[in-house]
Structure formats: C-alpha cells, structure tokens
Amino acid sequence: MPTCRETANMSSVQKLRDFVDQRLTAAAEEILGLFVRTIAEYEEELCRSKTENERQRKLLDAVLKPVIRLQRAGM
To answer: What pLDDT digit, counting tens, does each position of 15-74 carry?
Structure first.
C-alpha cells in the first residue's frame, strides 16, 4: 500500500503529465493550424501563377504565331 508521501508524489507526477499533455496538445493544434494556412496560401499562389502563365503563353503565341487576316479589296 502506498504511503501518503508516495501518493502525493504520484499526484504531483500526474498533474505534471496532465500539464505537459495539455501544452503539447495546444502546440500541436497551433502547428497544424499554421500548416493548413500555409498550404492554403501556397495553393492560392499556385492558382495565380497558373493564371499568369496562361496569360503570358497567350501573349507569346500572339507574337510567335501571328494570325494574318486577309480582306478583299472593294467590298
């Protein structure tokens, strides 16, 4: 049977474990939140980059592959 001192010591250890567990959980939640936000920002930047690349590709195509339209005279 544990003595009073052993019981108090176990209680202190359990309190410390609970505190550490609580702090680790809070830290993990914060890290996960930052991770999710960072991924969302990267996805937005990727979308903007794709849009800009498509715009620049169209401009380059217009320069490298010009469309010549012929019109009939006298119409």
So the answer is: 999 999 999 999 999 999 999 999 999 999 999 999 999 999 999 998 888 777 888 887
CA neighbours within 13 Å on the CB side: how many for 10?
6
Distance CA 43, CA 37 (A): 10
Contact 2, 10 (CB under 8 A): yes
User: What stretch of H or E contains 53?
Assistant: helix 4-64
Given this model, what pLDDT does residue 75 score? 59
- Residues 29, 35, 37, CA angle at the centre, nearest 5°? 105
Per the CB < 8 A criterion, the answer to whether 28 and 20 are in contact is no
